[in-house]
Design a protein that fits this description.
Helix content is about 60%, strand content about 0%. By secondary structure, the protein is mainly alpha-helical. Among the domains are: about 60 residues; about 80 residues, no CATH class. It has a two-stranded antiparallel sheet. A hairpin with a 2-residue loop joins strand 1 and strand 2. Helix 3 packs antiparallel against helix 4, helix 4 packs across helix 8 and helix 8 runs parallel beside helix 9.
């Protein structure tokens, strides 16, 4: 029995010795010149890689990708001219008309429809991030300087559909109104104090995380 085991072990060793080692293929890293033109670097690549910008790299890459789209280069100038002309014509017509011409419902519907059909996913993320960060900063100031007398806001959209009507007002208008109300509340609240310097350990940073 021991002889059979020894023969099997020798056979396994011989097979292992004659077997060719596996070929490990490593991915060759491109040279710097193959990554970008060092004599003419891209502005958008610079934005994506700039470590001095106080935003995370993933968002910088999304911004650079959105800015480098062909639609921005070829269609944006024409559409921008058209939009500016439409805005000025609308303002002139509203000045002439003897009655107020405005509709927040139409603005809310138009904001959502335009965002879903004409705004890239990267740009939508930047816009939604702007809304959320502004609300977080409003609440941070209200909580740490309001003395408990300043109400907080609840505008935290995470989808384009949530840029329509929010609590009876258009979300775009609402996020400006929240800032105005914060300043008014701080000026009127008896216990609000924006001048006293506070230690970092005394501040409440609990609501400064971005939602998924």
């Amino acid at each position: 029995m021991n002889g059979l085991v020894g023969v099997d072990a020798e056979a396994d060793a011989l097979a292992a010795a004659t077997q060719k080692p596996p070929v490990v293929r490593t991915k060759r890293l491109p040279r710097p010149s193959a990554i970008r033109d060092r004599d003419n670097p891209s502005l958008y690549d610079t934005i994506a890689a700039d470590p001095a910008l106080p935003i995370d790299r993933e968002l910088r890459v999304a911004m650079a990708r959105d800015l480098s789209r062909w639609t921005r280069k070829y269609l944006f100038p024409t559409f921008r001219l058209f939009c500016l002309l439409a805005i000025h014509v609308t303002l002139i017509v509203k000045r002439i008309l003897p009655f107020q011409l405005a509709s927040e419902r139409l603005l809310s519907w138009g904001s959502v429809w335009f965002g879903k059909h004409f705004v890239s996913a990267e740009a939508q993320r930047v816009i939604l991030r702007h809304f959320v960060i502004e609300s977080q900063l409003v609440n941070f100031i209200a909580r740490n300087a309001g003395g408990g007398d300043v109400p907080e806001c609840d505008l935290f959209p995470i989808r384009a559909e949530e840029l329509g009507h929010v609590n009876g007002r258009n979300a775009v208008i609402r996020h400006d109104v929240n800032t105005f109300n914060l300043l008014l509340d701080l000026g009127e609240a008896p216990r609000a104090d924006v001048w006293t310097r506070r230690e970092l350990s005394a501040l409440d940073f609990s609501d400064l995380d971005l939602p998924e």
